[in-house]
Amino acid sequence: MKTRNRRMRALAALGVVAATSLALSACSITGASSSKALDSGATGTINVLLMKQAGYSESDVASMVKDFEAKNPKITVKTTFVAYEALHDKIVTSAPAGTYDAVATDVIWPAEFATKGIVADLTSKFPSSWKKTMLGGALNTSEYKGKYYGVPWGPSTKLFFFNKDMLAKVGATQDDVKTWDGVLAVAKKIKDAGIVKYPLAWSWSQAEALVCDYAQLLGAWGGTFTDAKGKLAINKGAGVEALTWMKKSIDEGLSDPASTTFLEDDTDKSMASGKTAMELNWESTFRDLNDPTISTIVGKAGVMQTPAGPSGKNPGVNGSMALSIGAKSKHPAAAWKFIEYVTSEAVQEKFVQSNSSDWKASYSKPSVIATNPEVVKAAATAYDSMIPRPQMPNYNTVSQALQVEIQNALLGKKTPQQAMDDAVNAANNG
Description:
There is one protein chain. By secondary structure, the protein is α/β, with parallel strands linked by helices. Helix content is 39%, strand content 12%. It has a five-stranded mixed beta sheet. The protein has a four-stranded mixed beta sheet with strand order 8-9-7-10. A two-stranded antiparallel ribbon has the order 4-5. The protein is globular.
């Protein structure tokens, strides 16, 4: 995905000095038909496949492995790092041989991996307490049809950024942009005052970025991507209403029409140069907007959780990663032991400058807050409520259909209703 490098940088954004810039029916572990396979034989050498360009750095992981092996001398951990772009296919092609015991998985893969029997069902291993102690949005990172196929390992979402000075010039504050209707009202004041031509910029190019932005608006309008049968169902109610709002913001001259060619880096640069008053972007944007080498608005940026829609909801979009166990792992117990350790609250807090914590308690601790107070405050609530993108086995087909049809509506080639009808038809019959 073209937006992946941007999102990858965001995974590390809570740290001020981030270490990096981010065919079988599923669910049994080979050699065992139940979770008992995870409860015995926690010994041996486990092979772990990870992503190299963001989140925890290779040196971070090396430190975790060293500490883990010291505490678990009967387990040896061997890590392999690949670029995100190679991760999915490497997981798929290596799965039949059980090459990797544990693998890093993206939030958009659980449906595919679960239905194809690539990763193990870990539901029985999830303590009931995690539903209270883990951030709600993070918890569903590897969930598919009520089962968990991985343990969250660093949350990420888009936040709302605004130019405090521009808002102040029209008598507005953060309280005035806590809803999307409020955002448009303030944007109109900024435009009418001649402060900037287009107060809003978005990542609405035909790419995954567009699906991420639409997801947050869909959630704000109270919608979800799929129905009870797991079929795409955004061609009625909130699905159409959110898209209608997006098109309206362009028609009224409040959103930059060039947004349909923008990715996240473009909206970031637009706001950093003083051309945009408000944007939706990943966590690392706040760092960029306060970097004097690339920004003209240092000290003027504000950050908050996504504004609420008519439903009163304001979820972020889940852009998180997780650690899963290969369905044919030869050492599932040892792999679980390792995953349990590196995803623990204590370990995540130790490396919080490289990646965010999945645990609620972390966000009230001074050592975590001090890394980046403004973003931590916004993220603490945003991470607790995140909308997943379509949890469908044919995700790539679904995402492509959404990208094409949402753009058709934004460019005026189709009505929002026709665009969503066509997206649903393409996704459910593709």
